[in-house]
Amino acid sequence: xxxxxxxxxxxxxxxxxxxxxxxxxxxxxxxxxxxxxxxxxxxxxxxxxxxxxxxxxxxxxxxxxxxxxxxxxxxxxxxxxxxxxxxxxxxxxxxxxxxxxxxxxxxxxxxxxxxxxxxxxxxxxxxxxxxxxxxxxxxxxxxxxxxxxxxxxxxxxxxxxxxxxxxxxxxxxxxxxxxxxxxxxxxxxxxxxxxxxxxxxxxxxxxxxxxxxxxxxxxxxxxxxxxxxxxxxxxxxxxxxxxxxxxxxxxxxxxxxxxxxxxxxxx
Length: 267
Description:
Helix content: 25-40%
Shape: elongated
Low-confidence stretches: 60-74
Strand content: 25-35%
Strand order of the largest sheet: 1-2-3-4-5-8-7-6
């Protein structure tokens, strides 16, 4: 406790301040205990966490006539209309079908073709694919949809098919066949996947790619211990088709081909 006159420490039993002689009976000093300060702090916290929010809700409901929670509970749904001829810019991006549906009332119209494409791949390859869906909405009502489907062909080989299309002209399919645990240059050729590869590119293109990759054999044998992040490989047809070896568990051979789709999924 402190004297209210000279502010020096005094005992609770003192009637007069031993320092300045002030009569403590006329004006008893206030307690400055830790408990007292804590109680004041709790009162301030209660005011901020309980009383203040209640006051805001009261004002919102009785002075504006609106509930403060209504803005959070209501989510306006838009409808993706007809494609406009003008150029557009991206206004919304969704990394899942569920997020797309929360914003657009007719999203299901565009989601169903994407999901049916995954099913068609499973039927074509006889494998179960995992899939991710990505949607970008533009100001001219264009919609870019990207479907990425992935499956394992065997313990060492994976197949990824990534298709991107919009509502007008774009329809691009990127096929990636990755083979791990390659020990020799012959393994890198992916001859065991020839049938699959030639279902993506025609035979003349396949022959051209194999010839270009064979020309890299001497360079591979010389530098295989020092392969960098970009790997070593053959690129043809303006780099739309490639076969590249990367460092990894043993070595990794990756075939890539970008082809055009038939725009059958656009709506």
